[in-house]
Every structure is written in structure tokens, then in C-alpha cells.
Amino acid sequence: MGMQFVTRMRARLADTFTDEIYTRFLPHIESPSGDLQPANGSGNLFPPADYPFALEDPLVSLFATSPEGSPGPDASRALWVSFRIRLAKPSLVGGILYSGLPTLPARINEHGETKTNFGLPRELRLTCFPEPNVHGVFIDSELNWSVQEMISHSGLHYLRTEPTWTDFLLLRLSDFPLFGGVALPNSELPNNPWDPPDEGYMIREGSDFHGFAIPYFSVFTYAESSRYRPRVPAGLLGVTAPDRSPDAGPELYPELIHTSPADQGKTDYMPFTAASMLREGRTFIEKSRNLIKECFVSEPLESGEQVVVFLEQGEDYERCVAGIQLEPIIVPHDTVNRDDVKAKLLQLLQLPEDVRFCSAVRIRVYELDPPEGISPTTLDRAGKYCTLHADQLLSAYKAAPEAPNLQRSIRFLHPTTVRFLAVELTNAGADRGSLVVRQLNLQQSAHVSVQPRPAKTQRLRAVHFRFIGRDLAEDFAGLGSDGFSISIERLVAGETKDVLLSARSLLDLQHLGLGRLFSNTRRRAVEDEIVDQGPKIGVNTERRLIQSRASGWRAAASRDDLSDPVDWDPLLAAHNGKYGIHSNQEIRTHSRHLYPDSANILWLAGGAYLNALSSLFNGGETLASLVGADGSVRLDQLFQGGPLLTIPNNVELYAGWHSYWGGLVADQESLRIDGTRSFVQSPFGVVGLTAQAVSDVIRGTEAAMTLLTLLATGEALLDPTTGLPLGIKEILQQLAPLGDIAGILGLIASTAGSGGGSLLSLPLLNGANVSFSGQPLGLGVSISAAGGLTPSVTETASSGTAGQIALQASRTGASFAKQQSSGFDHVRMKTDVQSSTSTRRVERREVADADQRVRGADVVWQGQIVDIVSGSLPLDITLPATAGRMYRTSDDSIRVRLGTGIGDALTVDVWFDVIEEPVRDDH
Amino acid sequence: MITDQVILAGSDAYLQPPDAPGTVNLASSGTTTARTPDLDDGVQLDITALRLTIEAPNLAPLLSRTGGEERFLSITVMKELFPGLYADPYRNRVHTIAGFEDFTRGTFINCRAMEIDGQPVLVSTGTGQTRWTSPIYPTPTGTTFDAAAWDLAAARLPPADGFSYSLALAVWTGPGPSGAPATTLQLASGVDQAAIRCVEGLSSQFTDEITGNRLAVRAFQLEFTADVQQDAALSERDRLWVGTGELGMGESLGRPLLRAVHLLEPVKSCYDMAGLSELLRHCSDYTLFESTNGAMTHLSAALDLPVRLVRGSDLSEYLEVSVAGDRFTALEAMLDATVLIRAPRI
Hints:
With about 900 residues, chain A is mainly beta.
């Protein structure tokens, strides 16, 4: 049929609060006077207060819609869908939880059903595929759980399975409900556009559709615990209201509808559903931004008219319901300043101003126990399958009107375990008005009891009980530490006819032989223990083999700004202060001066110069070293000294010491030794040189040295563009930009023939001449010293850096160090006790006034170390069905009275062994 | 209101001939029949025994079955055996067709057998028409049926349009169930769930039209059909594997329908007694008194007959004693019974 399915994975419960798809299932009305649409806020959904899982637990939402159109008479049963559910990991599955949309219309139709069924499929089947047994699968193992309901309630539904270890489930949904589609009035709408027209509504052909809406779907694991709280979860089955318009249609709400103008000529509608009594109602937002709060408000009722709200217990097991608690809103007839009180109530409840309260309300509560195959909503409330449990007239406030106590607790004739209840609300006032109920809860009995039911004869064979508590067996004089006690009684007509069991202590249960105790061993926690050991007692020997392996690290810090660790041993507090190392020492030094780094161009040039000299003195070996294995000649080797290095490159000062200079120098490159440059000039030797000239000569010299360096490395011998060898002229022309001695160099260059040999000389400040000669086939160097400029007065200026390595020997006279250390040790040790013999004599003695005990761990229940008492009491009592031919009294019950209540330290489970026989009179 | 139980006493404890109220002697020249009075709603009679006092000039010859089939004492217990069907459980043998064995031996169309609330039930699947046809049951000795009742899972209360059904009983009177059945009785035809679920007077259907003799049923077969419009609530677990084809993925459960069919075959009652020894067999206690001439003239016997009588759906249940002939000079029947009263709700 082209079903559309929407599956939404919700990371947390809050993700279900709002979803636009919710409004897809709400009714819409089209009429010439303006279309009606769900108001802003209709798509909000608040979870029930009884939601059993954590808010952060993930869940799934499932939706389906069929295409709008005539689905055929049996389409709902022909439609089905199957979901394959794969859990994140194999778990002990206990069942599933699911719920429909409580905001849907819940008008009871002639079949005792609601059309929308709150969006829930009427048939659900769950198949758990257990982890396959290694020996195969049993052919008769029960794997499927099927539930089919004629009418579903608005609360949470549980489908329990037997504990099944699995990660794969199959969920089959079928028999989908029908959603109203678009309603069209058969006649003109009255002033209130929602009021049914005289001739009712018809559904626009092709606008209704099948589907389902399940906002909450979870798979839960199997676990056992007890719930002991007054509130009993419940859901709304449906509502019946005075049938003024037979053709109103079950797709519309039976409650009061507030309408408000919306955009584009449309009208927003806001229903005050009965389901909102059982959970947080929605907040509607009118176009004017006015907020309207949803609670149950009936259609205006004439005096004596009534609405009936059908409820069903909504927990996985039926509870003993002792009554209901509700908050009906009335404005009594004799209220002073009635209009003011009404206005305050409207403001308090955030209701629209057109709501008219009843002045009195009559509340009747019925227990419904339908025979098989009959919807509880179709039962005659005066019939034998219904029992009137409460009848109260509310016509006045409990307190002053200024602070009215609106909450009412209505206690039943006796607790009941039936699933279905009907709350009949009648306008008992003289005037027309709406019944308003803000909240309604089923209230659990403080005790557990079984009473006659209308449709089932109950044969009580036994009552079983189970107490689980951490300290249950701590003291036999009680049952746990909270004063719990239990008694099983038979009550007839309100009188205790027989006390079948009364136990106020563990000893009582043990004495009566009804309870079986599973307790942990307990022994004294404090004892004196005297151990004698020695040659007189016996032999004590031990032989061990220890193997260990350790790895780790240590870090020590010593700095002024370190703070003491918080867990510093107080004994060391006396040494508070800045961290540091202080010492004195005597140092004796042996220094060795270092050559500058060859990165200094001057030093490199000088070194190359001297290396070349050195090479010249060892001409044969040098020439041999210049020729490579392939016959090439490496002239640079001439300057670098080759194997006869005279002046080495020196980075000895910091090479390999980088990490040790840290903290002392920011830039370790500053440690590079440049060497000192000294310029010595005779004031009489070179008269014509001014300071500027000296400077120029120096820079010129540096340029020449650069040239020499380039020659030494061979880089200056090739044309950078052509890669061809250069002549001396081209070389010197390349050097022209190097300094202000360009003129001198230019002159020298002019005397050098291109490609021819030439001779040039450069004066050096110390009076030496260094001569370079360029030859076509090589480079020759000669050096001569002028000397003899005596007497001379020299002027020396030094720049650059020098380095030295000092060898020191120290002897510390005194030292103090305070360091902060942290470390890590990883030690693996293996000890083999190869043999051992121990002979001891132990004597234990009671310690006076020390009664503490330590508990064993023999009994574990769901991972907790507890004590357990379980027992049963045979009954053999028959409670005839009150709808049968004869019964003695309906006021006959077996009650398990749980003392003054169950504390937090105890878990109490009570269950009856009952055989139920349906009444067959009406079959 | 809680009302005490009382032991039936005085003349009310005695069965009295209808034509002579106030007297307790049931012995007369003809046949005297006495029964418990009609019970109203809210009254229950718990009978544990029938105490008989019999007088005759000499009871010894009556111990033997001297009168052939002539019964001197006959006791009838009329109970509402099944809703709406009153019959004597001692005069009828009930054949019940129910349970997985019977259901699964038949053929299913749009239905299957499931265990609902511990009872095997025929449950419709899919939509529309449902049919179950039982196997053919041969009756080794030949029999006849006087009444039939059937048990459906749904009560007879509204809604009436949940489903409609028919039930037919086909019988073979020949030596073997070959060919078409001799006759087919429509026990129910297109009725809704509110219809009464029993039929009486079937024995007239088994009479040979020519000879007037009653025909023995040699085999029979049931056919149950239903047209389901509304599903009903059920909650059940089963062993269905989706992939085995026992219940296809496309099938939805519909409505629990038929639980059982009961066919009542008339039989002779053990409480039709032709000799005193037959009476004494049922008595837990009896005393024979001799007269001075040695003849046994008095018999006091407690006939154990636990019966609970109430007013049924439309009639009152009763216990009836018939005394035939003039063998006794006196016969009194006193009820060991307790009366329970509970006023019905108004």
C-alpha cells in the first residue's frame, strides 16, 4: 500500500519532546468558515512521570502512515510491518516498553474502542532469538510473545518476556489503527467552530489513513526489584461524553476544544484531553502569544450530565489500588466573590476565559472486570461485572476559597487488583459547566491483598513472600533495620477474622517454620589474636626465588619559582624556601685555546692560506691528493689542506654541548668562535693611509679573502650562467662590488689579461705582502713578509670572539641542594616460593565492648551481597466470582499487611498462588 | 450483607409428592415423583446426601434384581451442564471435542489452534472467513446424540457484531464413514456471539423416517465456520518460528473463537435402581432393621450424592426422586443439605 515508515533514533528522552510528525496524526477540519488546525504547541509531548529509565538512555520512535485513501474494510488487519532489532551487545532481554501518542482523540465508539487507539497497533508480536545452543535449538522452545488488545491505553506498555540472552529481536506490528484525516462539517458550523454542526461531520474521502505512532520504544534487560510507592502508573482508555451529535465522529475529541484565530484565515484548536490528567499537559501558544495550559476540561455539561473516563493500570504487573487521587476544579455555589475566585482559578490554571466551572461534581469510581472478549468500556456500570468502589459529592472547598485545597483522595471500598477502572464525573451543580480535573493518579495500597473479583473465581492456594536486604540477618530480633513486620490476615466485612501469620522478627519466621533464611556468615570484626612462633612451636622456613625487572625515569627540578607539593611530608617543612643548589668549591683550571670556527670567512681564508702553504711544503703528497680516482683535479683540496691539515675547522666549543648551555645563553649560535682580528699599523710605515683608507683596505682584504675562499671552494671558477670556467679578469670583475677598494681591484683587473697570466699584490697592514697569481692551468700563491719596520709603534685593535676549553678540578667544601623530583618506576617482579614451612600457634580472644562484625559474601542477589528470607503460607481459600450465581460476600479478602511500611534497606515481594476460573454464566 | 448458612430441616428437608404437599411418604401404588422446589436467584442448596428410609413387609427379596428392568427408585439430577443446557450428568455421556489433539487433526482455513489462558482455542488469522473441519470420528459401538453445546472464548455479551459463526454436525449411520454423510445437522447457523450455545432434541434427527427406528451414528464430523469482523484481546506466548511457515509473516491474529464442542449421548443412569443392592452400592452408610419375625422391614440408608443446586440462566436446577410400584409401604427421602442465601443486587 505504499506505507511510509519513519524510524528515529533518540539519543535521550528529551529528543522526543517535540516532533512535527506528532501533528500529522491529529485531526484537521476544513470548512467554508475557516479551516481548523492544531495550535502551536500541539506537537509537544511530555513523558509520563512513571518513565522507568534514565533520561539519558537512548530509545527509538517508530511511525508509519499509509497513503491517504480508502484503505478498504479489512486493511487494518492486512497491514503489518516487521522490525529487526539488533542490540549493541548480547543482553539478558526482559521485554520491551512502548507507548502511543496520548494527544490523540479518545472517544469511545460503539465497539468499545477508540478509533486511533492512541496510535498503537492492536497486535504486537515479539520474537527473541536466543543465542544458539551449541547443541542446536529446541523445537518446542517458546520464543514468541503476542499481545492483541481491543483498546490500548495512553500510558506506557510493557511486554514481558522470559529472560532471554540475545542481541536479536523481531518485532511485528499489525492491525494498525485508523486516523481521522480531514473532517468536513455536513452543515454550517456554529459560532464556536469546533462545536459539532447539526448534521455532524463526514470524513473527506481519501483523507483518512492507517498507521501507527510510537514515540517511545525501548528494549529492557531482565532485572528484579520491588516498587513500593503510592502512585500507580495508569493510562487513559477512552472517554464517553453526552452524545448530542451522533455523527460527530470518533475522530474528534470528546473534550472541550478551545479555538483561536490563526494566520491565513485559519483557526487553531486546542483540546483539553482527559489523558493530560495522567501526565504533564501541553502548553498551547495562541497567535497573540497568550499561553494556554492543557488539562482535562469536559464539554459544557447540563446539570446531571456526566462524562466517564476509563482507565487502565499501566505497569507490568497489576497493583493493589486502594483509591484515586485527583484534583477537580469547581467553584462552589456559595463561594463569596465567585467571579473573582473563578478568574483566579482561570489564571492559575492558564485556561481560556470561556471555561465555566461546575459548582459541584459527583465522583463515582467503578472497578471493571469484563468477561473474556468484552471491552471494559462497553460494560454496564450497573451490571454484575462492575463494582462501585467510591461515590463522593464535592461541593465545597476543604479550605478557604483564597487558598483552596483542590486535591482529593478517594479511598475505595477495598483495594482492588483489576486492571480497569471507570471514573464517572457528573455535573452535580445546578448550572451548566465544564468538569475540570487537573490531575488524577491511582493510589496503591500500603498492603497487598486479594479480593473477590466479578468475573473470576479465585482459588488461593498459597501466599509467597520474599525479603531481600543487606542487613536482614544482622539481628534476629527484627526484619531488617527499619522495623519491618508482616502479617497475613483474612478480613471479612472489615473484621479481621483470622490472623494466618504474624512475624515481627526473623526469629518469628524461623520459629513458625515458614521462612527460609539465606544469610551470609558473620563473625567478629575485632579480636585479639596472639600468635606464637618459634623453634618450640615448630619449624619456620621459606625459600624464595625473586626475579625482577625495572624500568622508569626520574626528573628533578630546582628553580626559584617551584612550589612545594601539597603532599609534602610535614617533616620537610623546615626546609621551606626556594629551590636551588648552593655550593662552594675550589677550582684549578687548565685552559686550551681554540681555533675560531671556519664559518668566519677571514679565518677560513687565513686557514686556507696557511693550509695552502702547508701543502706547498709537502708538494708531492699534496699533488697526489689533488688528483681524484677518476683523474679529476680538486684544487680546493689545496686550500683545505687535504690530508695535511694545518688549521682545522673548529666547532669544538659547542659541538655536542648544545643542551648543556641551555639556560645560560638564548642563542647558542652566539657561542660560535669567530676569532679575533687584530690590525697593527706603524704610524710611520704607511703615512698616506687615513683611517678611512685603513677601513677600506680591511674590507678590501676581506673581499680578497672572500675571493680566496671562493677559489678555495671552486665556486668562483665557473660562470654562474654558462657554467664555463672564468678567467682571472672575470673573477676580479665579479669581486668589484665587494667594497670600496673597487678602484684598486679594477686597476688590478685592468692589468690582468683575459685568460692570460697576471700578477697582483695586495698590501697587508702588518707589512706583509700576499701575492696571488692566476695561471691558465692553476692557481699559484706566494707570500712574503716585508718585516724590518723597526722600530715600530703599532696600534692594535681587536674584535670578534675567542674560545677556550678549561679543564678544572674542584673539591667541594660544603653543598646544599633542594630539588623537586618526580619520577616513574615500572617494576616487574616475580617471586617463587620454592618451599615454605610455617608453624604458628594462634589464639583469639574476645575484645570487650567490641561487637562489630564482618559479613561474608556467600549470598549474592543481582550482584549485591544480601540476606534473603523466602517463605510461603498455604491458604486453600476460594473467593467466588461476584458475577457468578452465588457468593457469600464480596467483602472478603486475604491481606498481607506490611507493618508500617517498607524501608529503603529492604526489598519485599509478595505474590499469591491463584487459580482463576472465569465465570461461564454468560457464555 | 453476610447471611449465615443453615442446614435444611423440618419438612422442607423431605422430598414431597407434588399432589400431596406436606406428606413425606413417596410410596404409593403408582409412580411418585418428587423434586426439590424451584430455587430463586440468590438461593443455593448444597446437598451432600440423600437419606432414605424405606419400609416394607420384607425387604430381603428386594435386594435382588427381581423385577428385571423395572426400576423401583430413580434419581435425577438436573443441572445446567453447559450454559443454557440442562441435563442429568448421570444420564448423559459427554463427548468433548477440544484440545490440541482434536484441533490439529482437523483442517484449518484462516485459523489455527493457540493456547489462550491455558486452554487451546481456535483463533482466527487473517481476515474474513474462517473454517475448521474436524476429522471424522468413528463411534465403535454406534451411538446417538441428544444435545450439543459448544464453548466459545468470547462471552455472549455485546458487542454482537464482533463475529458470526456456524456449527454443523455431519453424521454417518452406515457401517463406515464412506461417501457423503447421512445427514448434516446445523447446530448453529450464522449466529452472533450473543446466541445461545446449545441445542437439544437432536435424537429426533436420527430416526429412520420409514421404520421410525432410531439410527445409530457410526461416525460424525464437525465443521465450524466464522466471519470475523472485530478482533478481541489476547495475550499469549507460543513457540512459533517465523521462518517455519507455521504462521506466515503476513498473518495477523484475529479472534479467539471455538474452545470446545460437547455432544451429549444419552446413557443409562446408575441411579436408576431395580434392586436394593444397587441402592446400597451408592450408600456410605445403611442399616437394615429386622422385625421380631426375622424379616427385614426397615432400611435406613445415606445415599452420597453431592449436588449443588442453584437457579440457572433461566430455570432452576433440581433433584428428583421417582418411586415406582407398590413394593414399599413407606419411602421417605430427606436431604442432607445446607441453604445459602444471598440477596441479589438491585
